[in-house]
Amino acid sequence: MTPSTPISRRQMLAGTAAALAGTAFLAGCAPTGPGSPGAQTLQFWHLLSGGDGVTMSGLLDTANAAQSAYRVRPTVLSWGTPYYTKLAMAAAGGRAPDVAIMHATRVAGYAPGGLLDPWDVDKLASLGVDESTFPAPIWEKGHAGGDLYSVALDAHPFVLMYNTDICDAAGVLDSDGNLTPATSPEEFLELSRAVAAESTGHGLSFGYLGDGAQMWRLFYTLYTQHGLTMETPEGGKSELDDDAAIESLTYMQTLLDGEIAAAQADYGTAVAEFATGNSGMLFTGVWELRTMQAAELPFNASRIPTLYGTDAVYADSHSFVLPHQTSPDEGKRELTYQFVADLLKGSFDWAEAGHIPAYLPVTESPDYADLVPQANYADAAQYVQYDPPAWFTGSGSNFQSEFGAAVQGVPLNGNDPAAAITDFRRRVDGLLAKPNPADPEGTFGS
């Protein structure tokens, strides 16, 4: 089936099932910006709330005010399953918005069943948006089945934040006030213990209890630093290097020793420990940048150190997609391309949310180089590692929950890392044995 094929009731229900494979959004409409009375209205769905939502609202206001051809009307839905379910049903039922935001890691579950329309790369290129204007791994992630299905607004990687006062007292800052690079697991353990000695709490904050996503972000960062990726071939068996996987999980267990990091902590506890100045370092996503700025901490941030030889860091991307429309209005579709190009070119302010804008002319500008601490981890965009592509993977997915269920007992109860990896592989193979609900015949290809 090609993406332009009308969608049947069966496929509509399958698309809904694919959305439910992930995991959660409150519906609501954001205020619309100014626009010319003759402007075409573009419907835009997204899942950005809190500080991200405020920043996106500002970007939309700027885009609306800068021209008179279009006026973007955003609809904001709560993060998770309800958003992705509604997006699938809208695309399958002929009520799709003109453009929407998806996590890049969720596209693999939507493109095969025709729930998304591909982007015309030539049309994007005519607007200054092409392969040369994106980091290679981010541009490549937008493709499925040979076509471009998502255009990234950003990369939001897992990073290391650190309290500069505590780290200075521990003697682990260089002459420029940046954290001394650790290039091996042993060096990072030594650094972490030095920081712990100067902290009222722990040297490193990391929350994982009941949070498979958190465990997966750190695990996959360490695993891919071995120069490896996990493979999830449709209908086949998962491919995961046992030695590297066990080593990565064992190292996580070592960090969570009660001295370097708390042996038992959830996400909120870890963020609070760092935000109150009680720990020297924090493993977290860039989305916590505003939290730490609001706490008025003396802090900086960097890419997670490369401990196993290969530069790599777990990340996802908020990306623009074209939800399937059976008979798209060509005039509005042209304006949708223009809107996406305008937003990418004007995405400097998106960095205020902590995210790394994907459009290279923004991150390579002199103004961005002066943006601290964002500029200090901007190079992470060149080394991002996404979830292995499968219909059941991606941000908020059951895949990450299954990982947490399989491995949480390693740091929590001292369970055997090798047995945990075996359990995780068994869970993934069970999912791989099931067809993509959005493409049950496997007709899309890879």
TrEMBL record:
Pfam families: SBP_bac_1. SUPFAM superfamilies: Periplasmic binding protein-like II. InterPro entries: Bact_solute-bd_prot1 (IPR050490), SBP (IPR006059), TAT_signal (IPR006311). The keyword Signal applies. Transmembrane segments: none annotated. PANTHER family: ARABINOSE-BINDING PROTEIN-RELATED (PTHR43649), BLR3389 PROTEIN (PTHR43649:SF14). This is Extracellular solute-binding protein. It comes from Labedella phragmitis.
